[in-house]
Amino acid sequence: MHSVFKNNFIKWCTNMSRVCDVTGKKPMYGNNVSHAHNKTRRRFNINLQKKRIWLPDEKKWVTLNVSTQGLRLIDKIGINKVLKRMRANGKKI
């Protein structure tokens, strides 16, 4: 039993880098529920995209791991304001 727990624990810890650079969204955890109401743990991943974005003010490309909500935020307020917020929160770009 111990090795099964260890393998499952390693499996759950491997994809922790799936975090949105803009919004900070992370995966959620929950249960798969069968028709017989048997519950098994699962992970709800976010819709994360790797995007290369041109910064006209700095004249360089930036690669970000961005959720689709983060992409909508970039479209809405602009990449410069988003980067300003990220830098204020201590993110390195």
Indicate the topology.
Blueprint: H1 2-13, E1 28-33, E2 39-44, E3 48-55, E4 60-67, H2 68-77, H3 79-88
Antiparallel strand pairs: 1-2, 3-4
List keywords for this structure.
single chain, 93 residues, alpha+beta, Ribosomal Protein L24e, Chain: T, two-stranded antiparallel ribbon
Structural class: alpha+beta
CATH superfamily: Ribosomal protein L28/L24
Count of discrete alpha- or pi-helical segments spanning 4 or more residues: 3
CATH structural fold name = Ribosomal Protein L24e, Chain: T
* Rg for CA atoms: 18 Å
Number of strands: 4
Under the CATH scheme, the architecture is Roll
User: What is the average of the pLDDT values?
Assistant: 89
Main pleated sheet: 2 strands, antiparallel
What shape does the CA trace take? elongated
State the strand order across the main sheet: 1-2
Q: What number of structural domains do the residues give?
A: 1
Q: CATH top level?
A: Mainly Beta
Strand content: 25-35%
- Give the helices and strands as they follow along the chain: HEEEEHH
Helix content: 25-40%
